[in-house]
Design goal:
Layout lengths: L12 H13 L6 H14 L3 E5 L2 H11 L7 E5 L4 H9 L3 E5 L9 H5 L6 E4 L11 H11 L2 E5 L7 E2 L2 E2 L6 E5 L13 E5 L2 H10 L21 H12 L1 H19 L13 E2 L5 E4 L3 H10 L27 H9 E4 L7 H14 L3
Parallel strand pairs: 2-3, 2-4, 4-5, 5-8
Antiparallel strand pairs: 1-9, 6-7, 6-10, 8-9, 11-12
Helix pairs in contact: 1-8, 2-8, 3-4, 3-7, 9-12
The structure holds pyridoxal-5'-phosphate (PLP).
């Protein structure tokens, strides 16, 4: 069998035709395709405003700025996330305050409450691996302490909580369209969404040099604009996002059946959540050996993420913190291949190899 990658974006003729049409249109930056993609994303996610930008990291940074974050502000964030979540907090000149996770890898409201100080201004739930956090728990915490909530949905577009899309619960939310994501633009790309007119307007200014109009710059922004070639790709992808997420769920169910009974922990769906399996993450104390065994069979695996954010050298100036659930997870997690582009035969092949490793 040929090697099995962790994810495989679908590049079909419809995508190629969409790209060619934009090249011919000669409108490349924040043009009609970007505007249409923003309108379609807002409709899909059930929010008033969608503001495209050039990465998920940029989206987080713009949202922090638009929320009025200033030096000295503390923001509650899970350590168990992609480091860009933390980086954006720091880039906005605020201080990340690390919070532990629950058994579904989402920020734990019970731990978050113990980390609140008079300087705390907001909380960033990260919907890890495509699974919503305990949105009710985090929202209740935010309203009790007067905090804003900024959802990091970079791994979870299309995931739902009580039937409603993630990204529609916080004051704002950030998404990423990186190639492995459930919705990609075949390159870097990002999005801020919000129901708040002011936040959206400020993000539109920030992504274009703080411009109020063509000649007047009302604040220091940056060039974080989006382009029409990638918007056209995203528009094609959005049309099949729900089908792609359904396929991920079907492949996850196939894994669950094929891997049952082994001494590994399989991902579980949180009550009230609709998981979209951006990543299929299992747990085992034999992670290193299993990854090596699978690599020998041409099967790619990953670790998301092997060094917890609170232990990264970049933030060693922050006070040390102990996060037992995060630290245990980091040592055991292993990501198996998963994307709508994988075949059933490939998933079966991975599962067979895992069974073989465990002698089952
Ligand atoms: C949870 C999370 N937050 C933020 C980001 C940053 O997104 P981007 O790579 O588009 O800048 C990512 C991407 O990996 C992510 O997974």
């Amino acid at each position: 069998m040929s090697p099995i990658p962790l994810s495989r974006p679908v590049v079909d003729d419809e995508v190629k035709r969409a790209v060619a049409a934009v090249l011919d249109s000669r409108q490349y930056i924040l043009g009609p395709e970007s505007k249409a993609f923003e309108a379609e994303l807002a409709r899909y996610l059930g929010v008033r405003h969608a503001v495209l930008t050039n990465s998920g990291t940029a989206a987080l940074w713009m949202a922090f700025r638009a929320l009025g974050v200033k030096p000295g502000d503390e923001i509650l964030v899970p350590s168990h996330t992609a480091f860009p979540t933390i980086e954006a907090v720091c880039f906005a000149e605020a201080t990340p305050v690390f919070v532990d996770i629950d058994r579904w890898y989402g920020v734990d409201p019970a731990d978050a409450v113990t980390k609140i100080t008079p300087r705390t201004v907001g909380v960033v739930p990260v919907h890890m691996y495509g699974q919503p956090v305990d949105v009710d728990g985090v929202s209740a915490l935010a309203s009790r302490f007067g905090l804003w909530m900024l959802e990091d949905c970079c791994q979870a577009i299309g995931a739902r909580w009580h039937g409603r899309c993630v990204g529609s619960f916080g004051r704002a939310a950030a998404f990423s369209f990186y190639p492995s994501k459930n919705l990609t633009v075949m390159g870097d790309g990002g999005l801020v969404v919000s129901d708040d007119d002011e936040i959206a307007a400020r993000c539109r200014r920030l992504r274009d040099h703080g411009r109020l109009n063509k000649d007047v710059h009302s604040e220091i922004g940056f060039n974080l604009r989006f382009n029409d070639v990638q918007a056209a790709i995203g528009r094609v992808g959005l049309r099949s996002l729900d089908a792609g997420n359904d396929r991920r769920r079907a492949l996850a169910a196939r894994y669950r059946e094929a891997l049952s009974g082994l001494p590994i922990e399989l991902p579980e769906e949180r009550p009230h959540a609709r998981h979209v399996y951006h990543l299929y993450v299992i747990r085992t104390s034999k992670r290193t050996e299993l990854a090596k065994f699978l690599a020998g069979r041409g099967i790619a695996t990953g670790i998301h993420y092997p060094l917890a954010s609170h232990k990264q050298p970049a933030v060693e100036h922050l006070p040390p913190v102990s996060l037992p659930t995060t630290e245990r997870a980091v040592d055991e997690i292993l990501t198996l291949p998963m994307s709508p582009g994988h075949t059933e035969a490939e998933i079966d092949e991975v599962a067979r190899a895992v069974r073989e490793f465990f002698g089952g």
